[in-house]
Amino acid sequence: MAVMPSATWQQHALSTRPARLITRSQRALTIKASTGRRYNSDKVPPSTISSRHFYQNEALMRFAARPAQPVSLKQFAFYGRELTPEKILHSANFVRQELPTRMAHRIHDMQRLPYSIIRNPHMSHVYELYYHSFNAIRKFPIIRSLDDNNRFCDLVKDLLLRHTGVIPHVVMGIIESAELMEPAKLDRFAQSLLSSRISRRVLTEQHLTMTNSLLAGNVTNTGANIGQVFLQIDAADAVRQCADLAGRLVSAEHSHGKIPELVFEGDVDTKFAFIESHLKYLLGEILRNTFEAAATKTEGSGERPEPLLVTICDTPQHVVFRFSDQAGGLPPDIIPYLWSFAKGPRSLSRHRRLEQLPSFDAVVEEIEARSDASHKRLSSLSSLTSRPPGMFLGMGLPMSKVYAEFWGGKIAVKSMDGFGCDVYLHISKLGIESQFVEHTSI
Ligand SMILES: Nc1ncnc2c1ncn2[C@@H]1O[C@H](COP(=O)(O)OP(=O)(O)O)[C@@H](O)[C@H]1O
Ligand SMILES: [Mg+2]
Fold first, then answer.
1. Residue 127 domain-assigned?
2. pLDDT over 90 for what percent of the chain?
3. Ligand 1 atom closest to 391 (CA)
4. Is 3 inside any structural domain?
5. Nearest alpha-carbon partner for 385 in 297, 276, 259
6. Which of 27, 134, 242, 286 is deepest in the core (most CB within 10 A)?
């Protein structure tokens, strides 16, 4: 039966016989055909994309109808200060409700995409992974004891691991679908999927970290961090540390290019509370870009690049970082697409690079979890920040936008063609705008 590209999967399900729309072997073949690589279908849960599944959707709809409960960094920080078993059980049951609710919103978004998009092998993989996790968590009984909580923690850790490869699939899926739906809508879809993913991971990790603290007997937290929230991040120091790493990575790639010196000005003593891994990811992406541009510009000339001016401004609501370089500015052809996952002159090369990754999860931030499943923090961004030089996925700025906006901040780039760029990163201070709720994307 012919399917109009604009038909949603639900409409399609209503008009077709109850049979599997795509089998596992078909899907493996389609993935191979579309990417040139065989996809490891062992990791894929059994297909849920069928018309029958559509009629069994009541549980999903029940969860999708609930609003996500907003939570802020400030709440995290206060909640984690004094830990008791009751607090841990309360947190566990909160996570037990919040994860499937937030997942249901995104699954519902996917169901409203045109059927031809959800049928894309990458998208259907993401859909099935989400559906599987949604079911696994919603079926977990109420957590009444610390033993129950330990079992719950094992489940969510396992699910975190299973979701490690989601980002490349989402991005490849939307690039392959760019002709089937307005790219701006696809971008909104990807942004809300990724933002929701951050929220779920932050909630989960916070709970896991608190559980570990309680089990280790650290019930009163007076240290530098509460869970993932670092209370006194030194803004200039964070830039320096990220610049060291970015400098090493870019120099390794451009042995004949030069990295600029950093010159600081403004409120250089600023300290603020934030999730350190998120801040370092953002700073790392910005610094890699500017170092890359400087190293490319000076490659082989022996010339020293102009210094990178880093201005820090501490306002009542935000900490603002401005990075002013003289590395030539943005290539004009990419400016209209700088923040897009779906479209742009480089989207095909992005797709090619993603499919050439040694494994689909090599790009994502949780890779650490794979090498050490017992690692306390399952979602450090460090491996993404320190990914090999030359891995230009063209997603640094679109991903940074999602992370910055997630916490009520923003990121902007102003370019002077042939001269240089100013990149502004606004970080919302703890508790002021850091509530995270979810919105429907389509
Ligand atoms: N400070 C900068 N100076 C010059 N070009 C830049 C700068 N920042 C970003 N760019 C350009 O924007 C492109 C997109 O950046 P990004 O989204 O981080 O993806 P990637 O770095 O993987 O290509 C870069 O490839 C580069 O061409
Ligand atoms: Mg980049």
1. yes
2. 48
3. 22
4. no
5. 276
6. 286
pLDDT, tens digit, 9 for 90 and up, residues 325-371: 999 999 999 999 999 998 888 888 888 877 776 544 433 343 333 33
Instruction: Count up the domains in the chain and report the number.
Output: 2
Pair 176, 234 in one domain: no
Q: Which ligand minimizes its atom distance to the CA of 246?
A: 2
Tell me the best of 289, 291, 330, 393 to mutate to test the pocket of ligand 1, counting ligand atoms within 8 Å of each CB and taking the most: 289
In a domain, 222, yes or no: no
Instruction: Say how far apart CA 258 and CA 228 lie, in whole Å.
Output: 35
Ligand 2 centroid from CA 398, angstroms: 9
Check residue 249 and give its pLDDT: 87
Looking at 215, 246, 268, the residue that finishes a domain is: 215
Under 8 Å between Cβ of 398 and 339: yes
| Residue scoring higher pLDDT (254 or 97) | 97
Tell which residue, 66, 92, 88, has the closest CA to residue 79: 88
186 shares its domain with 271: no
Query: Computed from CA positions of residues 84, 85, 86, 87, in that sequence, does the dihedral angle turn out positive or negative?
Result: positive
Atom of ligand 1 nearest to the CA of 420: 3
- Of 215, 238, 262, the residue at which a domain comes to its end is 215
More confident residue, 366 or 427: 427
User: Is residue 2 in some structural domain?
Assistant: no
Q: Which domain holds residue 378?
A: 228-428
Which tokens is 336 given?
A: 């209209």
pLDDT surpasses 90 at 144 = yes
Q: Find the residues whose C-beta lies inside 6 A of ligand 1.
A: 285, 289-290, 293, 325, 327-331, 334, 392-397, 421
pTM exceeds 0.85, yes or no? no
Tell me how far apart the alpha carbons of residues 328 and 236 are, in angstroms, rounded to a whole number.
25
Q: Would you state the pLDDT for residue 22?
A: 38
Q: Which atom of ligand 1 lies closest to the CA of 325?
A: 1
Ligand 1 geometric centre to CA of 392 (Å): 9
